[in-house]
Amino acid sequence: MIEVRDLHKAFGNVKAVDGVSFMARDGEITGLLGPNGAGKTTTLRMLYTLMTPDRGQVLVDGIDAAIDPLGVRRRLGVLPDARGLYKRLTARENIDYFARLHGLPEALLADRRDALIKALEMDDIADRRTEGFSQGQRVKTAIARALVHDPRNVILDEPTNGLDVMATRALRQFMGRLKGEGRCVLFSSHIMQEVAALCDRIVVIAHGRVVADESPDALRAQTGENNLEDAFVKIIGSEEGLVA
Amino acid sequence: MNTVPTKVRRSRAFLTVFLKEVTENLRDRRTLISAFLTGPLLGPLLFVMLLNITLNRELDKAERPLPVPVIGAEYAPNLIDALKAGGIVPGAPIADPERAVRKQDADVVLRIASDYGSAWRKGEPVQVELIYDSSQRDANTAVGRVSQLVEGYARQQGALRLVARGLSPTTASPLLVARRDQATPQSRAVLMFAMLPYFFVITIFMGGMYLAIDLTAGERERQSLEPLFANPVPRWKILSGKLAAICAFSTVSLLITLLAFAVVGRFIPAEKVGMELDLGLHFAAYVLLLMLPVVLLLAALQSMVAAFAKSYREAQTYLSLLMLVPIIPSLVLAIMPIKAQAWMYAAPLLGQSLGIMQLLRGDGVTPGQIGLCLSGTLATAVIAVLLTIQLYRSERLAISA
User: Fold this and answer.
1) What is the distance in angstroms between the Cα of A200 and the nearest Cα belonging to chain B?
2) Which of A158, B1, B58, B361 is the most exposed place for a label (fewest CB within 10 A)?
3) How many Cα atoms sit within 13 Å of A24 on the Cβ side?
């Protein structure tokens, strides 16, 4: 479970995140939706302790990120906006590297890694160096790397960015599977159809603030719009940056 | 699922990062070539080539038959014979000796006046002209040889004349100068080897350079720092692993270069010009010891400088500039032969330069000097590492633009 309370973060005069609070529960997919530049990535970066909030609190499974950042990171699987694979290592070596940094014993490491390679259907690329991987292959490797320590909470920043239709579908199914396993899945997107199709709960962020935190149905009811896209536009107050 | 690893085996994080960096960089051809080929071998090769050219030139000048154009050779056959005995080959007279010397057609020209014979027979002093250009450094050995032979001949003939008049030759030489040169064969070599310490520093530098760039600017460019920092490992441990990888590469570079110097040292004909050069194992071991803290210092400095760069290329530019800094102590020692004070051994790089020069001179280094050298540089290295860790902690570092 991830809980965010009144997060603030400013870069110079720009308030990137200006009082964001929400909760992502276990066994649910929570979508962080907002136009480009709304503060999604900054919020997530504070969640996985890459950045320190100016104000506010982050709790992961009840652990305060400000007090025990390593404990928080141990409970998170993170796919950052920047996938950043090591191109001179194979996919398998990339996964193993992070597994070892998580302190997994070698036997367990091999089991988990092989299970993920199978689940993400990447047998054919596992022993290739990641240089020259397609976007989809890169995301798969990065996800396997993020999940190899079997975290209860999974954070995915724009996971479908740059993926083709088939890869996107496969990824959505995989996220559903993570939810089925009882994990807390939090992902960000600027694509509203994706969020609508996947999420149990939608947190809409605009200009660094949470402007809605509802289930898709409640969102429709609240705005009086039948169509989710219209509902979003109404909430955000502009059509800027929303890709249908 | 969700057996959150109770306790991360922390000691392994350092080793994991270290091994990964080593593996990854061993697969990069550019890094390999720079660290294990051009970096460590270019120095010794260049060094040997330059030395051989210089030494052979000196040798040639000292022993080779020296052709000297002589004007008026027919007036002084005995003098010419004496010169021939000294290895000089008298050549045909030339029309304009002054011009020939300036144009470097001849190193030196000997001119004997036409009244040489008559003056000699009357016992009057005669003049023999040596025409040369002292700004042509190349010619100096030749000039020295000819004038020495001529003066020797003059002294000999003078002595004979005294004997013929029943006087002791010593009457004409009331004073004798005895030169006692305290230079040892090794110390004569030192002048030529003033730049040697810099070669070692450059090698260490080149060995770790690409890793240092990769560590910050490279990771940032390929955006891998952010996912890396999402792992439950403190940043300073990640940095330590990376620094260790840099140190490993630069130490191997240094070892290769020391080995190369030990091998090529045998091919330098130093002893022929009265110099002694010991670049063997004993020398290598001392250099390695003196240079170990430099390895750490340079690793930290390189990482620090590279961390300021936004891209790989920018980092490369910065580091090329940084590479010029360690040349300063070597230059200072080469131009100004200062007398070493104790504190100088504690100054990073300067201490190493002094120590290596002493080793070359054959004086050896005292344990006290080694201690000063190691502790001074190590302290600086630790400060540099701490500063780099501080820099590595910054929030902005991880975020790719």
Assistant:
1) 22
2) B1
3) 30
Whether A228 is covered by a domain: the verdict is: no
> What domains can be seen in chain B, in order of their start residue?
10-56+187-398 (no CATH), 65-170 (3.40.1710.10)
In a mutagenesis test of the B interface, which of A73, A81, A96, A102 is the best target, namely the one with the most B β-carbons within 10 Å? Answer: A102
A219 in a domain, yes or no? Answer: no
pLDDT in tens, B55-86: 776 666 666 788 889 998 888 888 888 888 88
Domain encompassing residue A187: 1-75+153-214+235-244
User: How far, in Å, are A151, A155, A167, A181 from residue A159 at the CA level?
Assistant: 17, 9, 11, 19
User: Sheet harboring A55-60: ordered strands across?
Assistant: A14-24, A2-11, A55-60, A63-64
ipTM summary value: 0.90
- Bridge-based pairing state of the strands A28-33 and A201-206: parallel
The token duo for B221 is: 């460019």
For A80, the closest chain B residue by CA position comes to: B227
CA B53, chain centre distance (Å): 14
In angstroms, what CA-CA distances link A50 with A42, A47, B30, B175, B401? 9, 8, 32, 86, 15
Minimum Cα–Cα distance from B234: chain A residue: A70
Nearest Cβ partner for A152 among B2, B226, B400: B2
Cβ contact, residue pair A50, B399, below 8 Å:
yes
Q: Which of A150, A171, A199 is the last residue of a domain?
A: A150
Alpha helices (runs of H) in B128-231, residue ranges in sequence order = 140-164, 185-190, 196-213, 219-221, 225-229
Looking at A128, A150, A172, which one is the last position of a domain? Answer: A150
Q: Specify the pLDDT at position A16.
A: 92
Q: Is A64 on the interface with B (CB under 8 A)?
A: no
